[in-house]
Amino acid sequence: MRFDILTLFPDIVHSYGSESILKRAQKAGFIKIAAHNFRDYTKDKQWHVDDKPYGGGAGMVLQVQPIWDCLKNIKALKNKKTKTSKQKTKIIILDPAGKKFNQRMAEKLSKLDRVILICGRYEGFDERIYKLADEKVSVGDYVLSGGELPALVIVEAVSRLIPGVLGNEESLLNETFGKGKYPVYTRPENFMGQKVPKILLSGDHKKIKEWRQKMAKIIHK
Ligand code: SAM
């Protein structure tokens, strides 16, 4: 699976993508994360990618031209004439007013071949940029300074669902997001008087399983 991230700050993407699970997943060939600086595509002599809003108002607005050219160059324009493959692709704009990202959406995205994520900055996007995308997605009801963190949230949540990405497949089965979350403990047995429940030290796997199921029900009530 391939992720293309359009951003003005590709180093944010490189930095996070070159650590831990995403690093291993890329090395093993399960995923590929490419960051594209759409400033490289501006036709402005001063390298600007934003301008004042028509009609006045606060802040600067991202221009459509650099993003259009960037998508064209990476063969991701939705235009039929430029589409070269039958890949299952989705173009997503990160936007605080978009559809709320959740595990269900991550599962759907994990079935695709390619996800393209467009990160905003400043006051957001020229309205015509939305026409280049399939969907607007928000990672939560708060406003961040840019779309890079939201894009990486999506990349990581989706990548974890790709078979092979998590070394220990069991950790996906016991995923805490699901209804099966129960309390877990590790050493020491006693930390400043807070003790690990005795049942977990009993070695009785049947009873441990029952206890975990009971605790999961309490947690998710
Ligand atoms: N006034 C703008 C608006 O309401 O869209 C705020 C833009 S914000 C400062 C700059 C960019 O950060 C947005 O265009 C978007 O790409 C990204 N962003 C900020 N918060 C986000 C969120 N909760 N989910 C997804 N993207 C977000």
From TrEMBL:
GO cellular component: cytosol
Localization, UniProt: Cytoplasm
Tagged with keyword Cytoplasm: yes
Chemical reaction(s) catalysed: guanosine(37) in tRNA + S-adenosyl-L-methionine = N(1)-methylguanosine(37) in tRNA + S-adenosyl-L-homocysteine + H(+)
Enzyme class, spelled out: transferase
GO-annotated biological processes: tRNA N1-guanine methylation
Alphabetic keyword roster: Cytoplasm, Methyltransferase, S-adenosyl-L-methionine, Transferase, tRNA processing
Binding residues for S-adenosyl-L-methionine: G120, V139, G140, D141, Y142, V143, L144
EC number: 2.1.1.228
Keyword Lyase: no
Primary residence: cytoplasm
CDD domains from the UniProt entry: TrmD-like
A GO MF label: tRNA (guanine(37)-N1)-methyltransferase activity
Family, as annotated: Belongs to the RNA methyltransferase TrmD family.
Subunit record text: Homodimer.
Function recorded in the entry: Specifically methylates guanosine-37 in various tRNAs.
Protein name (record): tRNA (guanine-N(1)-)-methyltransferase
Species: Candidatus Magasanikbacteria bacterium CG10_big_fil_rev_8_21_14_0_10_36_32
